[in-house]
Each structure stands twice: as structure tokens, then as C-alpha cells.
Amino acid sequence: MLLTVPLLLLLVSPSLGAPLSGSIARPRNKLLLISFDGFRWDYDRDVDTPNLDGMALDGIKATYVTPPFLTITSPAHFTLLTGRYIENHGVIHNMWFNITTQEKKQYYMTQFVDEYWDNGSLPIWITAQRQGLKAGSLHFPGTAATYQGQRVQVREVEPRFYDYSNETEWRMSIDTVLGSWFSEQDLDFVSLYFGEPDTTGHKYGPESAERREMVKQVDRTVGYIRTAAQKHGLTDRLNIIITADHGMTTVLRNGPVKEIILSQIPGFSFRDIKFQLADYGPTAMMLPKEGMLDKVYSALKGGHPNLHVYKKEDMPGRLHYSNNPRILPLILIADLGYVINGLFPVQYSKGEHGFDNQAMDMKTFFRAAGPDFHKNLVVGPFETVSVYPLMCHLLGITPETNDGSLEDTRHMLITSEDTDISEVAPSRGPRKKLLLISLYGFRWDYDRDADTPNLDVMALCQVKAIFVNIASPAHITLLPVFKKDAN
Ligand SMILES: [Zn+2]
């Protein structure tokens, strides 16, 4: 009878499940929040990423994180900055629009429309500044806007036509943030944005060689950031969080795929529509003309097997994309891989995002390292609304009302209690019991393609190693011993 190789180590101790202390037993450290736009949670699987791997060893890696719906850039970034779902922070789209004048502004120009961003939820820069901290932001969506009369004090907004993929520019940005802002100007918090691998993912698709090359550039950049932190003497007092706004999926075309083209749906006419946002990836929103809502809804619903149509009030609650006056009365969502075209197909991207945030391809990544984080700890998934309360906690500021929870991330943090335990454990307290469980031939990554809620929960509560090496002969000789005992 074959039995097992030691693999899982379960420490049953009196401290398991004990409440963690909320405070960090050291002076406040600085915090750098970095977003690499459109970095899907699994982009490090098919590319060598020594610097991202090194950061996971030195800190925290989440299996993945779930962005808010719509899974698009400005709304999802504003969720990182506010901890609010999109219906609650009100930045409901990348585009600003006016239903009366029909005016629309694309992503870049929307950055300068104050009233679009400033509608009740304060980004963390303003809250930090109001509580006496110094904040900065470089290229992060929302940087240019004024909130209740205040802007982020130190900022850099990219020019109208900007190459978001230029690695030399990236390094200049990093030198600005770490050298000038953190070191010389002594800022406490900075948000830093890079526009890749999103653009490459759109253009060539997430499974392309070009995307893999861009992930290598991201990885080199992570190495550059950590070296720069060291060079400026910041390593011991700077926490770094790296995440993104959404993932990316391959757009399905040709062959058996029937594209969604609204004008071809029987009974639907754009003449019944007062204002619409279509031709923008996998979602669309519509304001039908007076009295036309039910007619338009009935025509579109069932109009294409991969198109889902909701009246605003019937949107699934888990999407948190309903309760805001800016959201239009009809919302259209395509299945993964499909995009919604209006009059005729005008979207040619090979990769797209904006889909239901339950889809694994929309999930993104999360890494963190620094003096307040545990080392070499892999944690289970959480929603990106919870990055905000984590950041407020790290900065020691009181958060605004938000939809996240510090309980989602608290286990990542070194607390004063951890320090106490490591200092006194050998000489104090009852002896801990130890249960060693091993599973025969359980490869390190067997939990990647199967739902393993119980293993995930165990990782959340305590420790998960990325993998372990079986190198020593002593280990191998254990095998027959275990077999014999079992028989
Ligand atoms: Zn994006």
C-alpha cells in the first residue's frame, strides 16, 4: 500500500485563531502603490519573472485578486484609491458623457473633468493629506482631478500623447518617485501607474509572444524599483504594493463565433435610443427614449445567445453596478470573449477586458513587500476593495467609509503580537502539539487547476510555501519508514 510523503505541516497551537493585534509595533513606514494596467493574475506562469518571484519570497503573493465590475481602467483604479465599489464611488466608466448634449470624452480627457471624479468618495491621497501626511501620484488615473477643493500635492500627469510602454520613461518615473519624492521630499504615500501590459494585451492578445515580452519588461521594472529603493536607503521603511485594475481575455472571432451586432437584432433600432455607450468592449449602456424602455429591453433580451441584458434595477447584486444615478437604465454584458458592436463591427482588439469579474481571466495580481509584511507568504484571493483599508492601516490614517475590510489582508501583516511570540515562545506557554500530514505525490501546483477551498482557507489562516525542494537523501529514506508504519 502506497502511502505518503511529508508535505503538509499543520501546527496546532493555542495561538491559532487568536485575534491579531491591530497595531503595527513600529514607526509608520512609507507606502508605494503600483499598478501595472491589465496584468492578469497568471501572467507570471509562462514567463520567467525572477524579480516578481523574488518579491514573493520577500513578501506576500496573493493567488489572485478580484477587481470590481466594470473591469475597466478608471473605475477599477478609483476602487483601489477609495475602497468603494463602482456604484458607490461613481466613476462608472472610462468615458465621461452627457446624455443631453451627447458629448463623450475618452479616457485621457476624462482625467481633467473634476466633477466626474469628485462625486462623494475621497481618494486616499486627500484623506492622507488631511491627516497630516504627504502624498504624491504619478500617472495614476484620477491624479489630475480636484476633490472637494484639494488635489494630490505632488503629482505628474502624462501628456496627451504619451508612450505608455517606453521602458526608459518607466525608469525615469521610478527615479522621480523614489529619488525625489520619497527620499528628498519625504513623501509618505505615492501611487504609481504603468499603462502596460494592457496595451500589448489588447493589441496582440493575452496569449501572444508580445504579451510575454511585456511581462518580462514589467518584471525588469519591479527589479529596478526594488534596487532603487535600496539605493535610496528606503528598503527598511518602505512598503510596496503591486497590483492592477483588471485582467485580459482573448476576443473570439471567426469560425463558429457569431459576433454581437446590435443593429442586426430583430426589433431593435437605434432610433429608440436617446443615448448609448456601445462599441466599448463587452459591455454597453443605453438610455431609451421616453416610453421605449420595455420595447428596447424585450428586443435585446434573447437577441443573441451570448448577450445578457439587464434593467438597471435587475442587475445581479454581486456586481455592485446598479445603485448610481450615472448608470443608464439598460446594461448589456457579453459572455467572456465576446464584444458588443453597435451598427457594425468596429472593434479589432485581440484582447479585451470589462467582463464579469467572476471570470478568472478578469482577475488580477497582488504582491506586497516591506517592513510591515510577512515574508514568503502566499495568501488566498480577496477583492481589490480591500486594498484601501490595508493602505490606510499601513499609513496609520483613519479610512473614509468604504466597502473593503482589513480582515481580508490583516494576516499579511507583522503585528506586535508576532514579535512577542518569536521572542518568548521557546521559554513560555504550554507545549504546542504538532500534527504532520503528508500526501503521496502531491505536486506543488496541484491546487492551481482545481477548486481547493479547504487548502485555500488553511493558507489564509497560516502559511503556504510556493513549493518545497526534496533534495536531501535523509528525506528520501523517510519513505519506507512511513510505509512500514502505515502497514
Ligand atoms: Zn486598465
TrEMBL record:
Keyword terms: Signal
InterPro entries found in the cross-reference section: Alkaline_phosphatase_core_sf, Phosphodiest/P_Trfase
Signal peptide: 1-17
Pfam families, per database record: Phosphodiest
Gene3D superfamilies in the cross-refs: 3.30.1360.180, Alkaline Phosphatase, subunit A
This protein's record includes keyword Signal: yes
Key word Signal present: yes
The protein, known as: Uncharacterized protein
Organism: Synaphobranchus kaupii
